[in-house]
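Hey, can you fold this one?
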Amino acid sequence: MRKTAAPMMLLLLVVVPLHAQDPPEADSLLLRYDLQEIVVQGETPVEERITTVQRLTVADLAPLEALSTDQLTRYLPSAHVQTNSRGETLLFLRNAGERQTAIFLDGALLNIPWDNRLDLGLIPAGLISRMTVTKGAPAIEYGTNVIGGAVNLVSPSFEYEGRLTELGLSYGTADAARAHLVHRGRAGAFSYTAAAGHARRDGLPLPNGTRLAYNQPGTGLRTNTDRRITNAFARGLYTFGDGTRLSLSVLHIDAEQGVAPEGHLPPEDARLWRYPLWRYTVGILSGEGYLTPQTHWKATAWTGDFSQHINAYGSLAFDRPRERQEDDDLTFGTRLALAQALGPGTVRLAINGFVSTHRQRDLVLGDDGRPLPGETFPRLTYRQETFSLGLAYEWPVTDRLQTTASAGYDVMRMPRTGDKPAWDPFSDYSFSAGARYDFEGGFFARGAVGRKTRFPTMRELFGEALNRFLLNPDLRPESALLAEVGLGLERPGLRLEVIPFLNRTSDTIDRINVTVDGERKRQRINLRGSRVLGVEMTAQARLHRYVQGTASLTLTDVKRLKDNPGESERLAEKPDAVGTALLRYAGPQGLSLQLDATYTGRAYSLDEDNTFVPLPRALSLNARIGYRLDDVVPGFTAELFARGDNLTDELVVTQLGLPGAGRMMQAGIEMSF
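Sure. Predicted structure:
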């Protein structure tokens, strides 16, 4: 009964972060500074009111005491976070594919274009002050491949004269330790941020009830789940006399981690992998201002230098790699958005583009861990060029009725394809249209419909993943028709919304298992299509001056469009429900309490015989207690805290053979001065 009633319980707890102002004493230490997205917010006020745009603020994120960004994004409405058999922790929104969702930092695309994905488990949470998610009909600002939505991660800024330093330390289960230091300042027109952090863990504890047939010799920590992340970040922002703002940022992440082997497969069939090197450096130049009083511009240019090594081992000792894949990616991207008042409304133009070069070398290693002598291991080069152009018009018909319509065109070229045959360019069109009407008493109704295409990634077309994938020379893009309706209520201290939505995808890219010459491999294929029909419910309420509640619940019905009557209608790892709930107390005497929960409904995973196996439903309960000490010495504030995640040691399985973490505890201190 407990599992059956879990979705309703989450909904009754009531809520997505509203924008009602919290009393200062109810917020985290981090609320001492103002947080603003400097450039490329991804939405204009009209579009934001018509499409689904939701935010998590610093007050929502800080109490989570997260080591990495994946632990933050799981609290976004309709979000499902999953760690796959490659060890990558990925975000799914409304059961869209992970390659259909774009992740940005301060307006720059973080997805690695080679596979259009980003391992959020290796992005430090300390870099993120807030995040914005956009779902439904795609906005023209985001460019290509955003069928599933876009998430903007926003780094901290400082809007007041003076300086502020923050230091956080924590320690917990499995020697999980975290330290981050942030210093910010502002003097006149110039402001800056400098940050550094380090996080590590020995592994993830196994929850009670875990039953793995293979690859788990002990009952303590999950095999090969250790992790280390070190990061540094710096940004400078200058505001000119006419209001024009220019910002330059640099982010560097250096990490390594193990990959949990699938527990339902014998070692010879499972991935026995480690990432001894995972390094990402991103530089971002951004700005915004006015060309004329009626013409607003905002732009971002960025470069990303990404390197990773994947070692493949022959035993669970992980002591002698047999193969190594070395990847290097260099990406240059740019975005320009213009908004011009025209007639009764505003016309908007968005131009996006990037060029990405992927270099890869696959090595066979000897007993000494070095490439086999006398063998030649060529370094293959792949390159893609992606361009997107979009035009939109926003027309506020009346004070209550607002409308928008857009059209766009996307292109992807592949001028270099390594040792594989050349491919013709991909191209396709997109469109969207929507409207919103505001009634008396804070009630509103909105609706939007759009079409967007997701091109196959270079890895899907050409990547063999250390000989585990069979390439498909006939792989095609997938396109989706997206529609949603929002019905809601906005009043001081209360926001409720119900959002029925439809995602109808043609030529859905999926994966099957095949046997070639007695060897089992995986292959990308195009299905006839798929359909996601669902409803997203969100709410937020201030229950008392010092108490607020938030919750979201998304119910979906996912079906594959069958080519033959005997085929299954299921798709892998698409839960029929996801939900979050949070209740927070922050009183005037420094005591704070938070209870939060995440729920994952029924999903199915594909086994090696192409049979769908049910995964367990799971409700994870978490809690935090903190006590703030204000002005211990003049100008010094500290908060002592303790947090527990998955307190009931629930078995959470998001993919067959890959259980999530069991109960984890941590305690620490956050200081500002």
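The longest strand covers residues 321-342. Let me know if you want another pass with a different chain boundary.
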